[in-house]
Amino acid sequence: MNDTLTAFAQAKIDELEAKSLRRTLKPTHRTDGVHVVRGGREYVSFSCNDYLGLSHHPRVKAAAIVAVEAYGVGSGASRLVTGDNPLLGQLEARLAALKGADAACVFGSGYLANSGIIPTFVGPQDVVIVDELAHACIWAGATLTGAPIVAFRHNDVADLEAKLAEHRGKARRALVATDGVFSMDGDMAPLDAISRACRAQDAWLLVDDAHGLGVLGGGAGTARLFPEAQIDLHMGTLSKAIGGYGAYVCASRPVVDLIKTRTRTVVYTTGLPPANAAAAIAALDVIECEPELVAAPVARARRLTGSLGLPEAQSAIVPVVLGEAERALEAAADLERQGLLAVAIRPPTVPAGTARLRLAFCALHSEDQVDQLAEAVRPWVGA
Ligand SMILES: *Cc1c(COP(=O)(O)O)cnc(C)c1O
C-alpha cells in the first residue's frame, strides 16, 4: 500500500465531488430494451443505446446460447493464434455486404477499434484531423499515432477545408475522422461534403457510425443517406443497436488485410467471443427483416422533439442541454422521481457549460412513454 497514492486519489475525488463531476457506478438490471431496475425500483430508461431492444430479442439470445453451447464462452486466444472462430468471418462478410465494402474486421469493442485502426495508418509524419465533438476513442487512437492532431469545428466543412489547406501540405498522409451520428448531440455529419473535402486534399476518411448502424439508412447506417460520400474506413460498434458487444471496420480488402496483420488491438488481444458474433449475425437478420422496427427509434425521438419544439431529431438521440452539471443532475433526479431514467451527461464527456440530459429512444418505447417523458422534461426546457 502506498499512502501518497491513496491521498492523491482522495484529493482528486473530493475536487470532482465539489464540482458535481464525480461519477459513481449504480448496479442496474436491464430487464428488456426499455425497463431497468435500480435500487429496487423499476424505471423506464431513456439512457440505453439498445435502440432496437435487440439485447433481449429472443432470436438474438437464442443464437448466442447455441454458440455458447457449441463453442464455449470465450475464444481462447488472439484471432491470429486460435481465436478465429468461423463465426467471426461470417459476421465480417455480413457487415461488409451491408456497407457495400470488400471486407471487414471485427474487434473486441469500439474503443479498441478506433484506438487500433488509426495508428495502423497514421504515423508521426502525418496529420489527423478530427471533428471537435468526435468520440473519445477517436482521440485516443489519434494520440497513439504521434502525429499532430488538429480539431475542426463541429460539422463545419469550411473549417475542415481550412484545416486541410493549412496542414495537408506539411504532412506525408492525412486522416480525417468523424462520428456519423454524434453520440452526445444526435446530429449527423454531412458526410458527402466531408468526403469531397477529403478527396480534394487526398485525405483518408474514417467514419465512426456507432449510433447510425441499425437506425439510419434503413439500418445500413448514416453513409446510406449520403450515397455520394466515399468513406475509406466504415467503423461502427456491435454494442448499440446491434444489442451486444464488439465493433467492426469495413474497408477495401488490402486495408482490412493490413489491419488483421498489424493493428495492435487485433494482434495483441483475445478474439471476440463466438457468441457475440452469433448474436450480431442474428441481430443483422432482424434488422434486414424488420424495417418498421428499424424506423421506430427516430420516430419516437421526433415525437419528443415535435412535442417540445426542439430541433427535429436526426437520430435516436436527443440532447436537452441544461448548462451547468448541477442543473443536469437536478433534472435527472426530478425525472427519476417520476420513474424515468435519463442520466445527466457532464464534462468532460461534453464541453463545459453544456451538461445535458441525453435522451436515447428505443423502438420498444410506447408513444405514451415518450409523451410522459416530454411532460417531465417540459419544465426544464421552458417549453
Ligand atoms: C459507444 C461508442 C464507441 C465505443 O464503442 P464500445 O464498443 O462501447 O467501446 C465508439 N464510438 C462512438 C461514437 C460511440 O458512441
- Cα(first) to Cα(last) distance is 54 Å
Q: Mind telling me the CATH class of the largest domain?
A: Alpha Beta
Number of helices: 13
Bound molecules: pyridoxal-5'-phosphate
In sequence order, what are the helices and strands, one letter per element? HEEEHHEHEHEHEHEEEHHHHEHEEEH
Residue stretches low in confidence (pLDDT < 50, at least 5 long) are: none
- Beta-strand content estimate: 15-25%
Task: Describe the global form.
Answer: globular
Structural class of the secondary elements? alpha/beta
Q: Mind describing the biggest β-sheet? A: 7 strands, mixed
Write out the strand line-up for the largest beta sheet, numbering strands in chain order: 4-10-9-8-7-5-6
Give the domain tally.
Answer: 2
What's the number of extended β-strand segments?
14
CATH architectural grouping of the largest domain: 3-Layer(aba) Sandwich
- Which superfamily, in CATH terms, is the homologous superfamily of the largest domain? Type I PLP-dependent aspartate aminotransferase-like (Major domain)
Radius of gyration, taken over Cα atoms and rounded to an integer in Å: 21 Å
Modified residues (N6-(pyridoxal phosphate)lysine): 240
Organism: Phenylobacterium deserti
EC number: 2.3.1.47
Cofactor: pyridoxal 5'-phosphate
